[in-house]
Structure formats: C-alpha cells, structure tokens
Design a protein that fits this description.
3 domains; 16 strands; single chain; five-stranded parallel sheet; alpha/beta; Helicase, Ruva Protein, domain 3; elongated
Length: about 425
C-alpha cells in the first residue's frame, strides 16, 4: 500500500486529507510542521509528501530543500493559501513535483497525487533496472591465487563500513572492478556508483565536473550543471586515476571529504552531500607527495584502507581461469561456441610477460579467437601473441575498404570463421 505523509499545521486540513486518501486506499501519516516531517522521513519511507508552506518551527520551503537532500526521489506536492505565481515557480525550482493553491480542488488534488505516485513508481522501477544493469556490468573477480583471495577477503570486510578506500595497481589490473564490488557489497548498493576518470578530464574542467556549476559562471555555462558529487549523493563516487588530479581540484576534494560540503562553480551556497569515496591510481602517491604533485593531507584522507591489486605477472596461476573466462565471454559476444585451448597454449601464455595485465589478456583472447583455427594451439600463441603476427595488411585493408562499420566487419569475420570450421 502506497504511503503518503501530510505536513500541515492545521489539524482540520490534515484530517480531511486523511479521510479522502484513506478512502482511496492510501496509507497516511501526519506531521504538524516541517521539522517533524523530516524526523519521520529519516525513520520511514514515503511515496508522496503533501506539504503546506506556512508552518511554525520550519516552513515548507525550507523543509522542501532538506527533503531534496534526505529523500531526493520522493515527490513533494506543495499547498498554500497565501501563495502567488512567484512562490509556485520557486517551489518547483526547488524540486517540488507540483503546487496547488488553497482552497483545494479535491479532484485536482487526487489527480496530482496519482501523477506523483506514477512518478514514484517509475523511479522505483528505474532503480531496479539500473541495479540489474550495474550487476551485469560487475563481473566476477576471477582468480584463486593468494593475492586475489586476500583482495576478496578485504572487500568483504571493508565494503559494509563507510571507510574510504584507495586502490593501487598498474593499468589494466582491474582496479575499477574492485571499486564496483566494494560498492555492490556496501549498504549503499541501492544508490548509484558514479565514476570519474580524473586523467581524462582537462584540469580547467575537473572542478565543474566534480562539483557542478551555476548558469553563467563561465563563458560556456549556458545552464546549471549538477556535479558528480551531487549525482552520487547517498551512493559512492569512484575517483579513478586520482594521482592525475590538479592541486587546485585536490584542495576542493579535501574540503568535500572533511566537511561533506561542496560549492558549485560560480555559486555561493554550500551543498551538503553524503558520499563514500573510493579512489584509484597507478602512481606511487608517496613519490607524488615528495615531488609536491599530490597533497599529503588528501592522501591520508583517502588511504584509510589501501588495496593493492597485483599485476598479472604476479598471479600467473590465475591465467588458466582467466583464459577460460575470456574464451567464453568473447565467444559469446561473437555468437560462436568457445574454442578448445590446448594445455601447451595455456602454459605458453602463463610464461608470457603481460605488460598490459588483465586488459591485455582479454584483447589477446579476442585476437586468438578471431585468427586461430578450430582450436587455439601453442603455435597460435607463438604466432599471434609472442610474435604479434596478424593477417597480411592487404587482406585487412580490403576488409576495411569493403565494410564501413564495425558490425559489418565482425559479421564478415564470423562468416569466415564458420566457413573455416565447415571446411575442417
């Protein structure tokens, strides 16, 4: 049963609403002012709030702002008998679902409540779908080596806490996957994990990306922008390659971690945020601190728990499991059966120097599946991995000239593979 909270200082209005909404089969609770409503909102979840503007202790407009931080997905219908157009516009700008003037038209009010309920249902369904998509993206951590077992155990211990985590390791080792599992196993998994690649964002835009900006704050700021910290409110923000962040941006991030407060670029209002920060880097931050390129106080804020992800060369015993995993994964993407891989081929891959780590192994498996015969042999690994051979350039050029997009090229490769297997 849908639950509605009525917030109004007049008991008669609350009682009238209760009678009507309970007749419509809604569950109803009451609050005499905004302060009491926030207390109830912290203790329970509501599908819709109906809130008056003029109230003692805390008026509706102030309560609306706090509701947006406390339960941003809950639709709020504002009502007032002393309002004008400007008040209505201001309420909607602050996040109200709708505004209804007193004396209330009960038919319109019921329609507004139903529309708000529809929005609430859509938000819930979207959350469920996003969660399913997120889980489908969160692949298993493949491996049984002592290093990987330690990482899995650390994730299980750390994830349920609010401790900040710094993930270190070379490129391609799977730092993002570790961050996703920390979020997935945390109490915040119902909320989003927002990823920020600090190395991919120009230094002059990183502050706007993280904290947002107000309209007109700089030349290209044509409208207000919500930053990543606000988007992650209630969830997790993953700051990937944080070692590449500028010192100015580091100072702003430090303030956000210390005070749980951010300020949009060009704005003056402090915005409270509730986020868990997980950071990752491929750099030695101790050396970056010594070189005055990274703030030591920020390092100590981030590195409450440090998880070091090993290179593939340091966990060679996991390579057979990873090879079989990527064999199934890539074959599925090409809609073909997984290829047989000889033991000697796997042994040769175990002895290879993997400078690109897991990412390189995944690409190598795709290459072997496309270019090898009916099974992947030691010779295939020698030819296409160790020596890095590919089909003649002229043949590849002919394929790229004939087909204009990647899907057509993939279909061509699949067709050639099927011809080869039929001939064999």
């Amino acid at each position: 049963m849908a639950k509605i909270l009525i917030v109004d200082d007049e008991a008669a209005i609350r009682n009238s609403f209760r009678d009507i909404l309970e007749f419509e089969k809604y569950s109803v609770e009451e609050s005499p002012d905004g302060l009491d409503a926030l207390v109830k909102l912290k203790q329970d979840q509501f599908d819709v709030l109906i809130m008056d503007i003029k109230m003692p202790k805390m008026d509706g407009m102030e309560a609306l702002e706090r509701v947006q931080l406390l339960a941003p997905d809950t639709p709020v219908i504002m009502i007032s008998g002393h309002a004008d157009i400007d008040t209505a516009v201001e309420a909607v700008k602050k996040g109200a679902f709708d505004f209804v003037s007193k004396p209330l038209d009960l038919n319109r009010m019921l329609i507004t409540v139903r529309n708000a309920m529809d929005k609430s249902s859509l938000i819930t369904e979207t959350k469920v779908l996003k969660k399913r998509v997120s889980r489908s993206k969160t692949q298993k951590i493949i491996g049984e080596s002592s290093a990987i077992s330690t990482i899995k155990d650390t994730i299980d211990r750390v994830a349920p806490t609010e401790a900040r985590v710094l993930i270190t390791g070379s490129n391609g080792t799977g730092k993002e996957l570790v961050a996703r599992w920390i979020h997935e196993k945390s109490g915040r998994h119902e909320r989003p994990i927002i990823e920020v690649n600090c190395a991919a964002i120009p230094s002059e835009l990183i502050e706007s990306e993280l904290f947002g900006h107000e309209k007109g704050s700089f030349t290209s700021a044509h409208k207000q922008r919500i930053g990543k910290f606000e988007q992650a409110n209630g969830g997790t923000i993953f700051l990937d390659e944080i070692g590449d962040m500028s010192l100015d941006a580091q100072a702003k991030v430090l303030r956000a971690l210390q005070e749980n407060v951010i300020t949009r670029v060009g704005g003056e209002k402090d915005i409270r945020v509730d986020v868990r920060v997980v950071a990752a880097t491929n750099k030695n931050l101790r050396e970056e601190i010594a070189g005055k390129r990274f703030r030591e106080d920020l390092y100590h804020r981030l590195a409450v728990i440090v998880i070091k992800v090993p290179t593939l060369n340091d966990r060679r015993e996991d390579i057979p499991l990873l090879v079989n995993h990527f064999n199934g994964l890539v074959s599925g993407e090409y809609s073909i059966d997984p290829k047989e891989i000889t033991e000697k081929a796997i042994a040769k891959m175990q002895n290879h120097n993997w400078t690109g780590n897991i990412r390189e192994l995944r690409n190598v498996m795709e290459r072997l599946i496309i270019l090898s015969g009916d099974k992947i042999t030691e010779d295939d690994v020698e030819k296409f991995v160790i020596n890095g051979d590919t089909p003649p350039t002229s043949a590849l050029s002919e394929v790229f000239e004939r087909y204009n997009n990647l899907d057509d090229i993939i279909n061509f490769v699949k067709g050639e593979y099927q011809k080869t297997t039929q001939q064999v």
